[in-house]
Structures are given as structure tokens and as C-alpha cells.
Design goal:
227 residues; five-stranded mixed β-sheet
Amino acid sequence: MATLALDPHPLGCPVGVACIPSQMPELLVGLCVKLRDLVHPTVHQINPSRGQSYPILNLYASVDADVPRLVIFPGWEDNRGSAKRRLGYARQVTLMDRIHHAGMRGEDIEDQPDASSPQDNEPFRMGVAMTAAEFDVFVYDLFAYMGDLLHLTVATLPSRGVADLRVVRAYAPSDRTLRLVLFPSWAGDAETKAARIGASEQLALLQELERRKISEISVREFLHQSM
């Protein structure tokens, strides 16, 4: 990871996910089940003046790390998913700064679901609250902050539109078990209803990659090709 002096995210890299506050607890459990042996997770509860309260998830490289690698936020601060309550980068950074200066590390997560539960055999699928046109920035940040903790790959489905669609897979580095599959949440470059990539579209995208025999490559190779 970059040194803090040059780091664009010195308090951790914020990541918005395409869910509303009421969906965050389930998402946090899903992430923790998949990553609990690779990172140290903690939680803060946010109570905005408008909208609904929600948890955010801090992913530390270890229990004694000073700052988290990633901080996971919902995409909106209300359960209607309204544009006015869209939780963007500026708001994320403001909240992280307040938490850091208050000296609040967050509560450790305990009592996780049993590792032998059926859902633990499948990777966790998650939509990042970004358009396909913005998604390369996320790929770069994910590699910069988590590339030493996860083996990351990317598969690209060419598009005739504004931006190609990319799927990122995150594997445990030791045994290469697939833990996460990450998607943009809108095709193209606009957050419109017609462009939304939900759960069914995610599955269709994976099936299309398989049908067209599009291979995944390491994110390191992908970034090298993009330079």
C-alpha cells in the first residue's frame, strides 16, 4: 500500500456499494463471512440528520493496524434510494475524517455465521455504486489497497456503448478460493434505471462471460495493459 504521505486516501479507501441502509447489515455479514480470515473487520454506526441510520464496515489488514484499508458505505442514506441522499465521495471522506479525529476505531465484529453454512461455499456477489465508465478507478484502488491481501482478477465484456463491462474476482491468496465477485452497478456512464445492473443482470453477465469464453486476467496484468 502507498505511504500515507502520498496516499490519496490516508484514512482508508472509501467504497460505496449499491444498497440502501436497511440492506447494509446483511451485506456486512456476507462480506465478513468471506473475508474474516484475511482481514480484521470493525463497524461504526452512522446516524445522519436526515435519512436512516446505517452501519459502515472498516476492513483492517490486522488487528493492530492504524487505519483500515477499505471503508464500506451504502450508496444512499435513505431507504428510498433518492438522488438527494446519494452518499458520494465527499460525504464518505467527511464521515471518515470525523471518525478518525474522534479516535473511534469501531466495534469488533463477533458471532459471525458458522463457516460451514451453505452460503459459505459460494462467492459473495456485490455491486459497487459506480457506473461502468467509472469502474476502472475502483479496480485501481482495490489493487492498491487490497492487492497484498487478495488475489484479484478482472474479466472484460466488450460493449458497444460508452464503457466496457468489467467483473472483478477476489480470491484468497493461499488456496485461491473465490471469495468475492464485484460488479459496477450501472452500464454506461449514467446512474439510470434502465442501465441498472442488479442481481439478475449480474448473473446474466457471468453467464455471458462464460458463453463467450472470456478469460479473467490478473489485475496487475490488466493495469499494465492499461498504462
